[in-house]
Amino acid sequence: MHFKGIELKEFSIPFVGLANKKYTFNYHIDKKFFDNFEFSPVKDGDLAVKLTFDKQDAVFILDFDLKGNVELTCDLCSDSFSYEISKSSRAIIKLSGNEMEDTDEILYLENNSSELNVTQLIYEFISLAIPLKRVHPSDKDGKNSCDPEAIKLLNKISVNSDSNKNIDPRWESLSKLLN
Prior knowledge:
Blueprint: E1 12-14, E2 22-29, H1 31-34, E3 44-55, E4 59-73, E5 80-96, E6 106-110, E7 115-117, H2 119-129, H3 148-157, H4 169-178
C-alpha cells in the first residue's frame, strides 16, 4: 500500500504461503492502540475487530466488523463520553508489480511484499465511524446531557441577538449588509 501510517506488529498478516481461502483474525482495540496516533480524536476505547481475510491469487478482500465503544471529547463542553460503534467495512487490496495509485475502492500492494499490516486500515475505519460533530448523546428525555455548568458558561459568553444592540457605530453599516 502506498499510504504511510502506523504499523503495529500484532496487526501484520504474513500472507505468503497461505492457501487461497478465507481466514479470520480477531483483534482487541484499546487505549494502547490509540496512543500510537498523535492527533487521534479517540483517546481510549474497547473494541472488538473481526477481520475476514479472503486470499485470492492477486487480490485480498478484507471485511472488517468493528463493535464496541470509544471515548470521545464533546465539542460543546469538552467533557468525555462513550460512543458506541458497530460498523462493517471492506477493503480490496491488489498485488501489483507496477507503481499504481490507490483509489477509493482499491489499494495496491507491491508484488514483492510478504505481509500486510492492517493497523492504519483499522484506525481509519474507526475514524470514519465516529461523527464529525462529537456531542454528548441526548438523555432519555431528549435533553442535551452535556455538563450544565459548561453550557451555562457558553451561553453567557456566546454572541446572541441581544448583544448585537451594542455594536460599535463604525461596524453598524456592515451589519446592515447581513439583513
